[in-house]
Sequence to fold (622 residues):
Amino acid sequence: MQRGAIRPVLIRAALLLVASTAWPAAAAAGTTPLNPSVQIESMSCPSSGSCTAVGTYTDGVHHGQGLLLKQAHGVWAAGIQAPLPANAGTNPVDPAKNTGIADVSCVSAGNCTAVGVYTDRRNEDLGLLLSERAGRWQRGVAARLPGNAMAPAKDRKSVADNLVLLSGACTSVGECYAVGNYFTGANTLEPLIVAEHNGRWQTGTVAPLPVGASVRGQRAVLYDVSCLPAGTCTAVGSYVDADGDQQAMLLTESGGAWSAATEASLPPDAATSPAATPIALDCVGVGDCTTVGYFQDSHTDSLGVILSESGGTWGAGTQATLPSNAAPPTSYNAQTTVLASLACPDAGDCTAGGSYTDAYGNTQALLLSQTAGVWGTGQEVTLPSNAERTATDQTAGIDAISCPTVGNCVAGGEYTDTAENNDSLLVTQTGGVWSPGTQVSLPANSGQAQYSAIDAVSCAGVGSCTVIGTYQDRSGGTLGYTLDEAGGLWGAATALSPPAASRAEVRLAVESLLVPVGKDATVESISKAGLYDLPYVALEPGRLTVDWFSQATRVPTLVASGRANDRAAGSGELALRLTRAGRSLVSAGRALKLTSSVVFKPRGRQLITATGRFTLAKAAPA
Fold:
């Protein structure tokens, strides 16, 4: 499985409406497009040209929302906003607050399951379970936690961050598992498994911990789950043992029952407290799985770990052998190796990707291959010619990998160029030989300053792959892009369209214009200029009208008025010009109690109106 930025945030842990930037106008005065701040987290492709990707984006009123993207017959449709449960808050998804859609798994085209976390109207974090059936996404449901779950905070002033769902996998349509962890009333973190049977999500259960696990101070979590059509599943995670040390654990499900977890056997140089963390998991058959991640040695260096299961038995962990230019883990914190991605086209034949520290302190992209059950020495990815080569300035890594057959893979990630940009990195393997990495040529609207990365890769066959990632456009917004390979040839990167504005977004944007804000929203400033420039964002084409009235007389007096006709989405300023009566009122220099009226007529849709009252105050004394 391939996942993007939110998983590291959630693992390490495991928008506000502003009138001055709130509403796009395109027509008259120069306008700029919306910046949706897209993040891609996971992609699943059950067949060639048929993929589903999930993540998050910032909508037109700066609220975080779940993002669903779909490719059918090789064509990506515009994204849609995830249909969250009815109790979702106005800002339900924010990766910075450990919420978002973290993973998606599709058993066939149009039949997918996505999992994550969202915030409800009471400011409580809840597990998110989304199902697509026959091509239609159903409204999400909240995960039901075990009876010992921590009760929500009574004050509701801060988010009750009491669970995460990190991964989901299905054996068939309507038969799935979601895994993560949750807080109990005893303030422990327990591993969580939520099962779906016959299309209905059950109450979550606590995953069985290894014998001797700590009862007090437990901090367990399941990071990944993999299921086979045969009906068996495997999950990996970490827990705290009786000595208070973080260890890796491995679980297996068969016939609906999860066996007691076993503690992973780590390499001989593992520290007493190894902070073992398995990140990625892949299973090619019943009892044949591989997981990769990292652990700490006695020098607190982070080293790559590989754990393999064969015939239903997990073997001792293997430390990843690094390239010859790697910093030796002989002094404290000299080496940081992380294996974050994995693909196994066959039993005993896998490829892992990640990063490591070289002798100069740079973070380099790393690839390791297993052949006939034997892992070879890691290989440093040869970076593009524009890569930064100054000591300690490189931050390259492999975040996603897919191998349709043994020795034929595509991997993606990022690297730092000489201009200190973060560029998307694409690497291909053919016949067991890795080519030098190439820089992805981004869509035509990409900005000069860049922070782009490949977030997920999926190959239906050799020479037939799909890449999805994120990049920055000219206005600084973060958008999604996709890149397809057909017949061994890569096409041009194409920008992905974010979701259209919802009716609720447009209404919030309209309401945000009722009260002027900023240093120019004073009687003195408006009297001097004869107008007030109202910044706004038009979320869709239409006509916008804003009027201010004074209620000081029996008949309301029009004080200021402004109009805009927007032919496209974008941001701009609407000039609210004083009327003759308005100039007379503000010239007196007194605070004014006014009523504002905002009317927006979207093209082909119903009027949206809002009214409110505010006081146009005098400027504060210098």
Observations:
- DSSP finds four helices and 47 strands in the chain.
- The domain at 514-616 is CATH 2.60.40.2550 (Immunoglobulin-like).
